[in-house]
Amino acid sequence: VRAALATQDDGAIAGRFRKRGHPIDGIEGVRGLPLMDMDAIAESYRGENSMLIGVEGAALGALATMGTVIPYAQITIPAIVAADIAASMTLLSRTATMVSSCYGYPVKNPENLAHVLVALAPTQYDTDDGFMAVKGAAVAELRAAGEFMRAVATRTAAGAAAGAAAKSGSQAAEKALEEAIAQKAPKLLRIINTVASRLGIVLTEKELGTLLPVAGAVVNGGLNVAFHHVGHNMAMDYFREQVLGERYGASLVRRQISEAEAELRSRGS
Questions:
Q1: Furthest-apart CA pair in the chain: how many Å?
Q2: Which ranges constitute the DSSP H helices of 120-204?
């Protein structure tokens, strides 16, 4: 959260409110403004933050996947993964701290830190649906795919040399790759191969190896963006409730929300 605060400017957020016709002196003055204006300013940062966390995830996802394929580069993977987790959590924290300021709860005021930690809770879960658990599963799948491709490359080279008299090296390589993917490839490689087959594309070992970093970028960047949207929405909902609770009473707001949720469940059933 401290790192996130170093990358944001509450003055810029206040400037966006001024452009909407609200000449506030400080971020705390936001709390007296109409809720729809707070929502609009918070929403205006969604695209910017989504792009930042998506690019970060894609870059480090591709880098980590390349590390599994390139010989002797595997020793760099733990450092890359650690850097990715740290950067992702910082950018997710940045979203929460910016949304917090958009509703008049600047985290530079220590008493508002607890609010941001609550708003960040969904990204901290280490259960099956939490950010850390899903990110860990993705890293494991990408790493397994890279290690599989390295093993295939070794077997293919040996098989192609042994079968050179019977068929060309390229044919032997294609057959070895096809058999390996069909029998024991990680899920990610099977998905890539299935999509390529549906498009009428026959992937060689070299092409599949080239696609792995792309897949790593898409998977890791996509996860970051997906969790960013969830975190942004939940942060907005949390701070809306805080603002309304201050104005109308927390118990009344909580009761109204519970009744609305119950009505939505009954409609869904």
A1: 84
A2: 121-124, 131-162, 169-184, 187-198
| Token duo for residue 36 | 């729809």
Tokens of 45: 């940062």
Task: Check: CB of residue 120 under 8 Å from CB of residue 5.
Answer: no
Give the pLDDT confidence of 21-67 residue by residue, as tens digits: 988 878 888 888 999 999 999 999 999 999 999 999 999 888 888 87
CB 18 within 8 A of CB 29: no
Other C-beta atoms lying within 10 Å of the C-beta of residue 155: 16
For the chain, helix, strand, coil in percent to 5 are: 80, 0, 20
Token pair of 109, please? Answer: 């005021």
Token digits of residue 183: 């029998």
- 101 and 45 Cβ atoms separated by less than 8 Å: no
Q: Which two tokens stand for residue 197?
A: 């087959």
* Tokens 């970060």 sit on residue: 56
Q: How many helices (H) and strands (E) does the chain have?
A: 12, 0
Cβ–Cβ < 8 Å for 105, 185: no
Side-chain-side CA neighbours of residue 249 (13 Å): 4
